Amino acid sequence: MELSPNDPKLFCSAIDALKDYLPQAQLYITKDGLRISGMDISHVGFVDYFLAAEDCAVLNVTEKITIGVNMSVLARVLGSVGDSVTLGQKKEKFIH
Predict the structure, then answer these.
(1) Residue 38 CB: number of other CB atoms within 10 A?
(2) For residue range 20-63, what is the model confidence (pLDDT) as tens digits?
(3) DSSP string spanning 1-66?
(4) Which of 14, 51, 75, 96 is the most exposed place for a label (fewest CB within 10 A)?
(5) Range of the structural domain that residue 16 is part of
């Protein structure tokens, strides 16, 4: 799996804005794009952020991937990024 948004600065800004309202979230990555969803800490508001495949420079997904993430940690990691952002998954081969 590999995902790279067309506008990394805008993507990082969106994540930074969401982190204060949405402490924990689910990232759903499919061939259609990236969806971030979750509820605020008081369970009153629901966030459903969608980054479409058309807004990605690179989107290589073979199967649906779901990731639970702490938004503050994600924002901190993305805050140190330069002009490019790529989310990826590396599959490891285990030898028994």
Answers:
(1) 20
(2) 999 999 999 999 999 999 999 999 999 999 999 999 999 999 99
(3) -EEEES-HHHHHHHHHHHHHH-SEEEEEEETTEEEEEEE-TTS--EEEEEEEGGGEEEEE-SS-EE
(4) 96
(5) 2-81
- The whole-angstrom separation of Cα 61 and Cα 76 is 25
CATH of residue 76's domain is 3.10.150.10
Indicate the angle between helix axes 71-79 and 8-21, nearest 10 degrees.
150
From CA 77, how far away is CA 33, in angstroms rounded? 21
Dist. CA 15–CA 95, nearest whole Å: 37
What does the alpha-carbon distance between residue 64 and residue 33 come to, in Å, rounded to a whole number? 10
> Tokens standing for 94?
């285990």
In a domain, 94, yes or no: no
